[in-house]
Amino acid sequence: MFKILQAQFLAPGIKRFVIEAPRIARRQKPGQFVILRINETGERIPITIESSDPVAGTISIVVQAVGKTTHLLHSLGAEEFIADIVGPLGKPSEIARFGTVVVVGGGVGTAMAYPTAAALKRAGNRVISIIGARNKELVILEKEMREVSDILLVTTDDGSYAERGFVTDKLRDLIQTDTHIDLVLAVGPVVMMRAVAELTKPEGIRTVVSLNPIMIDGTGMCGGCRVLVDGKSQFACVDGPEFDAHRVNFDVLVQRNAMYHDAERRSMEEFIRERTAQEERAHNQAGEPCAVLQGGEQ
Amino acid sequence: MTQPAARSANPMTLKERMKVPRQLMPEQDAALRSTAFTEVNLGYSPELARQEAMRCLECAKATCVQHCPVGVKVKEFVQLIVAGDFAGAAAKVREDNVLPAITGRVCPQEDHCEAGCKLGKTKNVKPLGIGYLERFVADYEQRMGIRHLPKVPPTGKKVAVVGSGPSGLTVAGDLAQRGHKVRVFEALHELGGVLVYGIPEFRLPKQIIREQLDYLRDMGVEFETDVVVGRTVTIDELMGEEGYDAVFIGTGAGSPQFMGIPGEHLNGVYSANEFLTRINLMKAYQFPRYDEPMVDLHGKDVAVIGGGNTALDAIRSALRLGARKAYVVYRRSEAEMPARIEEVHHAQQEGIEFHMLTNPVEFLSDGKGWLAAARCVRMELGEPDASGRRRPVPIAGSEFELPLAVAVIAVGTSANPIVQSTTPGLATDKRGYIQADGATQRTSRKGVFAGGDIVTGSATVILAMGAGRRAATSIHEYLTSGAWEALPA
């Protein structure tokens, strides 16, 4: 059992957890992830580690509520427990002095890009960060990213904050204004990572993406997370999660990630039904409304 | 032929014993079981067990024992059954085998003890049902709540075991019996390794594994789940700051092999490891009560590619999960199938169809990213290959399409590199498996031992346990003497 020490929302539907996990905290490096299972009937899901404190023995993860498991996780708070957390898994990000590095974080991907951006800055790189979200409320870790970046660019899809547009618009601007770029790191939704790869490939800019396929064990045992890289099978859990963006077959990634969409939808519907029933029972007992999903829903 | 020793509790002459047929294992009805995950073999009653035990010839030179990878004293425990001392028989088995309820179910006895049984050397006489008898005494011991706990004083030595599969659990049990403190590290959230994620409930109920684990806990063995050694903690850290005197690595074969044919990334194509893990470990077939999903197999056509025990476990599971057609597609003939004969028979009884001498060359899509069919080619057997088996050769122009919704690839595994790549100085062979001495299981690193599939490549539960047994003996010697001879280069 792993104890949650702190839990707070960074944005609607995005929550950060600080969890007691001394073994993981001691060994975590930027780019690595954990697999967690909330309870005895839970599924195993991979989540990138945002940061860790080896002295305090804690790790921090940032989770967006998407399906049942992540919603259930959002319903947990400090002093509560997660049944299993294993890690740190995957190869750490390659940290070296590349020169100028552009770090692109889309949505909750910003939390995953953050530790690598910080490490790249510490390694003496010039770090240009681009973070984007759908709207103002969903922009996360702006202050943290600013601290580790020489330049921080922010976009929102609807223009409700900073500049209207996509992170790729900013990247395109950088390329078109002849900014010298040695490396691009992109973490976020698959469509965003693919768009970044398509922008940088003709320019010959080395680009790394952190992939998020479906996983079970995370140790290379099941092969469920296989991705096509240069036409060959690679396991994201042990060979990745970071890969050369120009060699990744994004179509296969999108297709495989959609494998359980129907099941995921059904799971979520049943979850909401159960929660609503609980809510009603509580309401009938207490005689006042009780929003179980409060804060967890967008 | 001589008469058995005078002190034998068995009144029958050897001739009489040879006339008694081998007692059949009571089985669940094939039609019923093909829809259920309950165990197929039901176990001997005490009467059946005694009747079977009385067939033992009590050979002076017990070749059955020589054929057992862990050296179970077969003749002695069988005679205790004859005498009606079932608890004594269980204790006798436990002297050499800390997981008797498991081996009694999944060990291929026909390749080991029963292959050495003199009864089976006579025409039309079947060997003694040693596996069934082992299972009987193990289940008896469990039912009666009998424990044989170590009586030796603690040695003060600490041993870390990496992996809670059959080799690791054997090492843990054997060393606990010798008074050493053992802690087992497991990467998954549940203990048992391949016994829980690989072998299905109908062949090895999870409850049996839990009982055997409880037994080990009572012996003083400690367990820690959610630790991937090599990632969460390294071997060097275990032997350094964590103060372990020796480490045993039993991480299993690990990584599934794919065939490298087009279409392997289609949705609906699984490795056997993933397919079985979703079912056995994650209980995906009980979705949505359990959260992990899998493709709904009801009314679907499913094939497994491969001919080993894993392949049969996968396809028999698929059948139980509602598959309309369940095929085994294997590139050689039935004679070369590595699966246990009993499992092949069980699968045939349940209605699994066997496409022998057939090999898929491509998986075809339905146009939406899902598997629709496998394009297969017929094979014929040519000259023997490196394995000594006749090499399958494609027959030109024999290609055909087999409509499928799900294909499970069970063509073997390769070495999982996590421990090797994070342990400096740990020698591996050219395929990436850990090099270990065949007699002592010592690796190139002082105080580090290894055994099971991570040394040999995919094998069986009992061979892994045999390696665990040898490792425990040499770890004990090392902890006692401190002597370490380098591996011959």
**Strand content range of chain B:** 15-25%
Low-confidence stretches of chain B: none
Helix content of chain B: 25-40%
CATH architecture of the largest domain in chain B: 3-Layer(bba) Sandwich
Unreliably modeled segments of chain A: 289-298
Shape of chain B: globular
Please give the number of β-strands of chain B.
16
Query: Most extensive interface, residues per chain?
Result: A-B, 43 and 42 residues
Rg on CA atoms of chain A, Å: 19 Å
Shape, principal axes of CA atoms of chain A: globular
The tally of beta strands of chain A, per DSSP, is: 16
The total tally of domains of chain B equals 3
Question: Summarize this, please?
Answer:
The complex is a heterodimer of chains A (298) and B (489). By secondary structure, chain A is α/β, with parallel strands linked by helices.
Give an overview of the whole structure.
The complex is a heterodimer of chains A (298) and B (489). In chain A, β14 (226-229) and β15 (232-235) form a beta hairpin. Chain A is an alpha/beta fold. In chain A, strands 6-1-2-5-4-3-7 form a seven-stranded antiparallel beta sheet, sandwiched between helices. A seven-stranded mixed beta sheet of chain A has the order 11-10-9-8-12-13-16, sandwiched between helices. In chain A, α5 (167-176) packs parallel to α6 (190-200). Chain A contains nine helices and 16 strands. The model of chain A is unreliable at 289-298 (pLDDT under 50). Chain A is globular and about 65 Å long. Chain B is an alpha/beta fold and 489 residues long. Chain B folds into three domains: 14-143, Alpha-helical ferredoxin (Fumarate Reductase Iron-sulfur Protein, Chain B, domain 2), CATH 1.10.1060.10; 158-253 and 415-481, FAD/NAD(P)-binding domain (3-Layer(bba) Sandwich), CATH 3.50.50; 256-413, FAD/NAD(P)-binding domain (3-Layer(bba) Sandwich), CATH 3.50.50.60. Helix content of chain B is 33%, strand content 15%. Chain B has helices at residues 14-19, 30-33, 46-53, 63-66, 74-82, 86-94, 100-106, 113-116, 130-144, 166-177, 194-197, 206-218, 235-239, 272-281, 309-320, 341-350, 418-421, 453-456, 461-481, and strands at residues 158-162, 181-185, 222-224, 246-249, 255-256, 269-271, 301-305, 325-329, 353-355, 358-365, 371-384, 390-394, 400-403, 406-409, 413-414, 448-450. Chain B has a five-stranded parallel beta sheet. A five-stranded parallel beta sheet of chain B has the order 6-14-7-8-9. In chain B, strands 10, 11, 12 and 13 form a four-stranded antiparallel beta sheet that branches. In chain B, α3 crosses α5 (74-82), α10 (166-177) runs parallel beside α19 (461-481) and α15 packs parallel to α16. The relative contact order of chain B is 0.12. The mean pLDDT of chain B is 92.
